[in-house]
Amino acid sequence: MTTLPEATVVRVDHVRPDPAALAEPAARLRDGGLVAFPTETVYGLGANALDPAAVAGIFRAKGRPADNPLIVHLADPTDLPTIVREVPPLAADLVARWWPGPLTLVLDAHPSVPAITTGQLPTVGVRVPAHPVARALIASAGVPVAAPSANRSGRPSPTSAPHVVRDLGPTIDAIVDGGPCAVGLESTVVDARGSEPRVLREGAVTREDLDAAAPDPTTEESAASPGTRYRHYAPACEVAVVDDVPTAAAVRMAGGQRVGAVAREGERLPPGTVRAGEYADLATLAHRLYGALRAAEEAAVDVVLLPRVPEEGLGRAVADRIARAAEG
């Protein structure tokens, strides 16, 4: 298969995608190519999960560490037994309650899943996305699709097709543009091998939703989840987490820095502050966070200020992404 100098961008209706429009990107997935596509969480960079050479292309395009496992995306929950050794009762219950949706289950991998897809682990993360475009594309391709976020490793995740173009345009085969992502944060990752769910990565499905326990992040268990071991979500500028965005902006600007900020809707910022993003509540902050980080970067600010959020419910996932961005 010939890779184009620039990725082909295929625009489709995000509610009722035209099967004919998806035929070419689906064929590219079957043939070992790399195709970016929207999910309800973020845009993913997909390859045939059962083709080691195709999956290796994901790692090259992203600059992703080879021991960082990938999530396998399926078109339908009934496909799960083809990817895992068994479906324990807990997993079956979570599938019934949350799929399609932003919940990834970690289970024992089926022998057919290559080690490169699982990050050399005996487990595999798998989910059925809720986005109609993602499910239609995967169904048309006829193969399970391994898909981490469609960005260069370590950068803010992409929540629109233009984000993918900027990060990966020349290095992949096609981008399916289904509009902006509805959720804006990666899926919750849960170890579902035991009798109780164990959250390995916070996401849109909260710990309270699952009545789940979180493992000690220092244990090896956390290695089964992507997005927990390496630098993630960081723009080129400094990221600072503050309790009072306007005051912190004034202090930074007095020190001669060019400042960007993510503030509440209607919140007044010092003159000259770049308003990289704004939000009304945690859900809108989650939805807009990665776009705001990218906007701050494009505005060439020295630092972008992000609000400290309560670490409960969805706030845990938002706080986790903000903290990881600030670590970068």
Question: Which characteristics define this entry?
Answer:
single chain; 328 residues; alpha/beta; Rossmann fold; ten-stranded mixed β-sheet; 10 helices; globular
Short description:
Its main location: cytoplasm. Helix content is 30%, strand content 19%.
The percentage of residues in β strands lies in 15-25%
The second-level CATH architecture of the largest domain is: Alpha-Beta Complex
**Alpha carbon gyration radius:** 19 Å
Count the domains. 2
Biggest sheet descriptor:
10 strands, mixed
Intertermini distance: 37 Å
Overall geometry comes to: globular
- SSE pattern: EHEEHEHEHEHEHEEEHEHEEHEH
CATH topology of the largest domain: DHBP synthase
EC number: 2.7.7.87
Protein name: Threonylcarbamoyl-AMP synthase
Binding site for ATP: 64, 123, 149, 157, 201, 233
InterPro entries: DHBP_synth_RibB-like_a/b_dom, Sua5-like_dom, Sua5/YwlC_C, Sua5_C, T(6)A37_SUA5, TC-AMP_synthase_SUA5
Describe it for me?
The protein is of the alpha/beta class and 328 residues long. It has 2 domains: 8-224, DHBP synthase; 238-327, 3-Layer(aba) Sandwich (Rossmann fold). It has helices at 19-30, 52-62, 89-98, 115-118, 132-141, 161-168, 207-210, 245-254, 282-298, 314-327, and strands spanning 8-11, 35-37, 44-48, 71-73, 103-108, 123-127, 145-146, 174-177, 188-191, 198-201, 238-242, 259-264, 274-279, 303-307. Strands 1-8-2-3-7-4-6-5-9-10 form a 10-stranded mixed beta sheet, sandwiched between helices. Helix 9 (282-298) runs parallel beside helix 10 (314-327). 52% of the residues are buried.
